[in-house]
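User: For a teaching handout, I'd like to show students what a predicted protein-ligand complex looks like in token form. I'll give you the sequence and the SMILES for dTDP-4-keto-6-deoxyglucose. Please answer with just the structure.
Assistant: Understood, here is the input followed by the structure.
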Amino acid sequence: MKAEQTKLEGCFIIHDSIFRDSRGYFFESFNQQKFAEQTGQVVNFVQDNQSYSSRGVLRGLHLQKGEAAQAKLVRVITGKVLDIAVDVRKGSPTFGQHVAVELTEENHTQLFIPRGFAHGFIVLSETATFFYKCDNFYNKAAEGGIIYNDPDIAIDWQIPSAEFELSEKDLQLPGLQEFTAAL
Ligand SMILES: Cc1cn([C@H]2C[C@H](O)[C@@H](COP(=O)(O)OP(=O)(O)O[C@H]3O[C@H](C)C(=O)[C@H](O)[C@H]3O)O2)c(=O)[nH]c1=O
């Protein structure tokens, strides 16, 4: 695997080493030792999540606050998504900035999102199966988030907004300024 540092400190694009032969492919989707060597971060994941969505479904921007904050290692098993990580770490020099990465079943690319980031994705293919590892357990009481179309973050979700499908919960998330005021 190779870890590519993004413009956001601690957030890495992970390029996996895929072994292909006449049967198909194999790759180590996570190796704690190699990950630490490449990123300088020792991560102990404790929970795996998986979701399945159709084209236009937009999940996010979510995070867990305080002690319940989660680092995530995310990838796509089937389909294609645009994955977004937003730096909302208090005092960060890149506060409010984001990275956008296309994760597909073909490229096997992963994104490592540190604690203190908001995360979301939109499905660009007909359907997508999304898998991610978390280094902290789900804590509903600590859930928070930022509205997907906040003008200060200014995410280009790549497809027409008429195709978007969000949960009622996500449509009521606060803007970055309101979120920041509560930090
Ligand atoms: C996240 C989570 C949810 N749930 C339950 C709570 C709800 O009854 C149901 C669906 O939850 P939600 O609508 O929050 O699922 P997503 O919109 O996919 O949320 C995720 O979307 C973005 C992309 C993320 O990065 C987060 O990990 C996570 O917030 O699963 C659990 O039981 N455990 C969990 O860890």
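For the handout, you might add this sentence: The pocket of dTDP-4-keto-6-deoxyglucose is lined by residues 49, 51, 59-60, 62, 119-121, 138, 167 (CB under 6 Å).
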